[in-house]
Amino acid sequence: MSTPSMIRTSFLIGVIIAVIHPVIVKYADAFWVNDTVVSSGQSPPLRSLRLPVVAEEPPKCLPPDDQYHGKNYCWYILKNTLGTEVHSGMLIRSNSSDWGWYVTLEHMASVSDMRPTDVGVWAEGRTRITTTLPTGIILGLDFFVPRIGKWGGKKFFSEKRIEFNIELKTTVVIPYMGTVKAKGADTAIASVPMEAGKNRIAASVTAMGKAGTLESEIVFLAEVSSIDLKHWNYDCDIEVLISGKKNGFEFIYEAILPIFHQKSY
């Protein structure tokens, strides 16, 4: 039986946790080198590093409050009083009982005359998601973003962009057939348009694995995006393709699993 091709999605993801302009560089556990933040291995207290909060959902979901109200996300918009700096991001929460941390993807834009002039990014963290698929297949996913904080994008055609690394590990347990483990790495992007287009932070990473006659291809996708820097979209999905055969039994499972899709007010 032939294997259907995976559905490809155009958006990538971007990830962020705290935001800070280069002129505000004093905090305990990270420091800026050539406009890039370097981690000392600790996670910073987020509130003290942020611009004023314009919106957050669920209410008070940002640290240190951490009031998620049962949701698996936290999206937010931050803006300085002059309107010359706008940030928006999301926290992608784990659902694993043994891991309470999350991934942050945050897009940062310098603004003049209501148009973006440059891009920044803050991203870090690890999210672990476990879900049970039809027929009892268990999918375990570990999405990791090494900490990066950076201002200043490189020109790429009609936009300015910053690239950063992302990683994915997956484990697929198929009852009575076996287990497939996989790893993948890719590059996420934070960008602003110099003409018309999206402001966005986007990530897409694929982990492909094989164990005997069993195969898996798992894609993790996340994106924060806006046309006008006022109204934002927050999207996260998992694409799944699992196939195998054993003792005369053959199967293919293909699906797009929505983690969340949100819009700002």
Automatic annotation (TrEMBL):
<protein>
    <submittedName>
        <fullName>Uncharacterized protein</fullName>
    </submittedName>
</protein>
